[in-house]
Predict the structure.
Amino acid sequence: MGSCSWLDAFECSQDSECIVADEYGVCEPVGYCSFTDESCSSGRRFGDHAGGSLGGVCVPGWGDGVEDDGEPDSAAQSSSGEGEGSSVGDATSDGLTSEGADDNDMHESATGEEEDGADESATSDATTDDDATDEDGEEEAGWSWSRPVTVTAQRHFEGRPILVELRDGDNFDFSELSAGGVDLRWSTDPSLVSGFDLPHWIEHWGADSARVWVRLPNLVAQTPTTVYMFFGNDSAIDASDRPGTFPRSLVVTDVAELSGEQAFDWIEVAAGGKLRVGGSGRLVLDAAWVAVHGSIDGDGRGYPSAQGPGAGGSSTTAGGGGGGHGGAGGRGGFDAGDSPGAGGDSDNSVPTQATPGSGGGATDMRAGGAGGAGLAIEATALVLAGVIDVDGEAGKSVDKNKERSGGGGAGGAIVLRAREIVLEGSLRARGGDGGNLGGTYVGADGGGGGGGGHVQVRYDRVLHESETAEVDVSGGRPGAYGSKGLPQGGEDGTMQLLGNYVDPIRVEVGSKRSIGDSPLISVEFAAGEAL
């Protein structure tokens, strides 16, 4: 655990405020810093100077819950894959399975088919039309003001938490709310006939700015959706509800495996957790919030030996060629009269999709290495504090007194797109090394190195970038020998860090109006239905 003994007690508002010496902490939603500690089930422990009696206490897992007052939420559900989300241990298959949950539960959580029932499964203090007076003693008439918030999506979303940023003096007046925004409420109905039917989570509330996530019904491409926030009630209690706002959650604390296209609200790979790319060798993750503190592993999960558009050449008389992707693969080593495996071609393209790397060339004695996986992540908020690896696999080396090793597999591809990003970890799409006997005699033909892959990061804002952040698309090293021609290493791949991301969701906060005013815009639909 990171030590904060030299700091005064304080509340954080972002991860960059939780840096102690060379250790990078995380600003938890309760406003206190936590640091890596694998002895905790969540993989993190609050710093010594966290408030609310949390100093030195393990951060609860996703299902354990922590309320905004800094105390554990005893009513929160367990991390078993039931209710609002899933904590995945040993999960396999192209869909999703989890210990402690059957396939149907996990399928419904991942697809949002039970989204209308989120209030039943999620731990929430949010006020609804039925319980506004019975449980909390709140009445919709107690709110003084409302503002329309119009959301326009460039593509269709099956229910989505959206980020609303409030700025004092710009699109909001903070003097009109209770401290901490506890009287903030959301509804699809400007007249409140349906009550406060949209859950929200206050990620941060400061003196002059706030970040509030609100879960909206289905968003139809190019069709504006208007919802309403209500405020101005001194008797209201806090209704911030993270599980209710992000009901489709994936939290990996051990080992999980996914492939294909996967949509969630919240994805978190905890410190010590590992998410493996399986199946087809390609994984596309789409979520509002993604945090990687552990690792995503796609090493050797791309095209197998001698397969793929940039496959290395195979040979029965010499070393296999390295696979190509972002960079070309290297030629295999050879002796007089041999026909070495050629290096695979690079695709010479800027990746728009996460394509797997091609396999290295085989020989009559050993296979080439498999290419790295293709991984794409698109999120509103993305935190990379761990490692994403999609390296190519090394070519298979021959045993002693045998000859002709395989070529290395090409690195895969990592394509990240986010409105805002924290870069503190490592992105690796390296080519695999050529197979190597280690001998220096005629017949000991090493394999060529695999070409590096692709890494592309598109963002609108970088919230924090550490000096230790790493991007590596190196080509693989060659095998050791060839009496007439040494094997060649793979070429480096491509990497791009581009600040030109266009958020597919646009949010506009409208003008304040008294609850008694006639609404300028009225949108009628039931929560959870497509507009």
Summary: The chain is about 5% helix and 30% strand. The longest strand covers residues 454-465. Confidence is low (pLDDT under 50) at residues 1-8, 61-139, 518-531.
